[in-house]
Amino acid sequence: MHVGTNHWALLVINIKEKEFHMYDSLRNKDRRDIPQYVEELRRYMKGKHIDTENQSLRYPDPCPQQGLGDDCAIFTCKYMECLARKDTQGFLFSQDDMPTV
């Protein structure tokens, strides 16, 4: 998802666990826009008759963080790759890996 004006992060809707999982390489839990996006998704899902009652927003750990730079889109793609492979026991990448990803 596009966050703010120049940042990408991954929001996963985990229906089974009744949670929204936010993977953000510039983790800032104080951002006001993330909960607003989640609330918009809840309304949309409710309109599609998908139960969103008691679904919480969670920031799973570990979640590799970027250094100074603009690698957020690459981090977001790597989060998706690891989750698709069900390789969440360790996101085995870091900022140091970005030049070769």
TrEMBL record:
<dbReference type="InterPro" id="IPR038765">
    <property type="entry name" value="Papain-like_cys_pep_sf"/>
</dbReference>
<comment type="similarity">
    <text>Belongs to the peptidase C48 family.</text>
</comment>
<dbReference type="InterPro" id="IPR003653">
    <property type="entry name" value="Peptidase_C48_C"/>
</dbReference>
<dbReference type="Pfam" id="PF02902">
    <property type="entry name" value="Peptidase_C48"/>
</dbReference>
<feature type="domain" description="Ubiquitin-like protease family profile">
    <location>
        <begin position="1"/>
        <end position="83"/>
    </location>
</feature>
<dbReference type="GO" id="GO:0006508">
    <property type="term" value="P:proteolysis"/>
</dbReference>
<protein>
    <recommendedName>
        <fullName>Ubiquitin-like protease family profile domain-containing protein</fullName>
    </recommendedName>
</protein>
<keyword id="KW-0788">Thiol protease</keyword>
<dbReference type="GO" id="GO:0005634">
    <property type="term" value="C:nucleus"/>
</dbReference>
<keyword id="KW-0645">Protease</keyword>
<keyword id="KW-0378">Hydrolase</keyword>
<dbReference type="GO" id="GO:0016926">
    <property type="term" value="P:protein desumoylation"/>
</dbReference>
<dbReference type="GO" id="GO:0016929">
    <property type="term" value="F:deSUMOylase activity"/>
</dbReference>
